[in-house]
Amino acid sequence: MLQAQSGDCATKAALAYDDAKAQRYDQAYQPLMEVKNECPTYSLATFQYLDRVLKHKLENAQGAEKNKLIEENIQLMNERLKHFPNKTNAAEVQGDIAWLKYENGIGTKEKQFKAFDEAYKGSPESFTSPKRIYAYFSLLVDLQDEGKRDLQDVFELYDEIIGKIESEENKLAEMLAPLVEKQEAGTKLSAQEAKLAENAEINLSAYSQVKGSVNAKLGQRADCDNLIPLYNKDFEEKKGDVQWLRIASERLSQKDCTEDPIFFKVSEALHKAEPSAKSAMYLGQLAEAEGKSSQAMKYYNESAELETDPGDKARVYMRIANNYRQGGNFSQARSFYRKALQTNPSNGRAYLHIANMYAQSANNCGDNPFDKRAVYWLAADYAARVV
Asked: Residue 28 burial by CB count (10 A; 0-12/13-18/19+): exposed, middle or buried?
């Protein structure tokens, strides 16, 4: 055995390594296999060179020969992990094996998905290949189409995958930004920097494409016909889960599923769990669209109280005032127009609305022509403040 005869092991390995370095892959194949089998712990280089050889041989292999080489490649990766665990990323090995099986149609879709799932969960930070990210998601969608996974599983993985893609895009953009600034300043990039910039742009393009492919794969599964029954089914169980409510509300809104009662239920539950000026405003708009004016006004007032941005607060007051004005309640309308002006004194529309309301109610104010005319003077005063 070569393991016992270290000189023979070293000699055969050296010759095989020389052939592999010189890309004489067919000549290096058998000696490398012998070194791997008979003295596997001799050097990590054995596995690294043999990986190159097998990938080369796989390029032109067909039929039974190809299947044999695939099995040898999988075995090689597992043995490297076994003999050199401190120099091998287990999750990356799982990802490589998963891709090899997927690319060559080995095993069922369930087994292929499980392999990608284990690789991703084992090391999300090393799961960065756009092709593998798409394969991972695509397999789950296929399994859901076959009735072997729930639609909720698809949505959860979709959110995870899109988050992963955007995270990788942000990393690349941050790395690329100073290089672009350097170029724009007229400074020539070094060869290494130019290569980094080129690779970053290629990868950004690849992530953009895979994001489009993932969205296309999700397709009509994310339409109202699927979303509404799904969220109706899970609402009672999930109505206390803020993250679930956020995602459900956003997805229903993006797909214009806002007319179904489930959207109001989800939005209302989210507002109770995590109240904000924006959520209160949105609930007010929903209630107003349904003709529930008193409920709408309750939410609008809550939105105004929660709002911290002066401009947005003024806009809420304007909406409340407009509703009162349109309903003929000029007194309340003026009160809220004034609140809008207190928040944003340059709001010309508020002055004009107050002026118009005074003008409309002139005949109802005062007991004599002088008093009635005084109301017009007051209206003119408000109108003049616009300029």
From this structure: buried
Distances (CA, A) of 379 to 69, 229, 325, 354, 357: 90, 54, 15, 7, 8
Residue 170 lies in a domain: yes
Boundary of a domain, candidates 220, 240, 268: 220
Asked if residues 291 and 310 have their Cβ atoms less than 8 Å apart, the reply is no
Q: What is the distance between the terminal CA atoms of the chain, rounded to a whole angstrom?
A: 99
Residue 377 lies in a domain: no
Q: Helix and strand tally (H, E) in the chain?
A: 18, 0
pTM: 0.66
For 165-187, how does the pLDDT look when each residue is reduced to its tens digit (9 = 90+)? 999 999 999 999 999 898 888 89
What gap in Å lies between CA 268 and CA 283, rounded to an integer? 7
Q: Identify whether 378 is part of a domain.
A: no
**Total domain count for the chain?**
2
Encode pLDDT of 297-328 as tens digits.
888 888 888 888 888 888 888 888 888 888 88
What's the CA angle centered on 179, arms 174 and 181, to 5 degrees?
95
Q: Is the dihedral of CA 291, 265, 137, 108 positive or negative?
A: negative
Domain-embedded: residue 27 = yes
The single-letter code of the amino acid at 85 is P
- 252, 262 contact by CB (below 8 A): yes
- For the record, the structure tokens of 253 come out as 């809104």
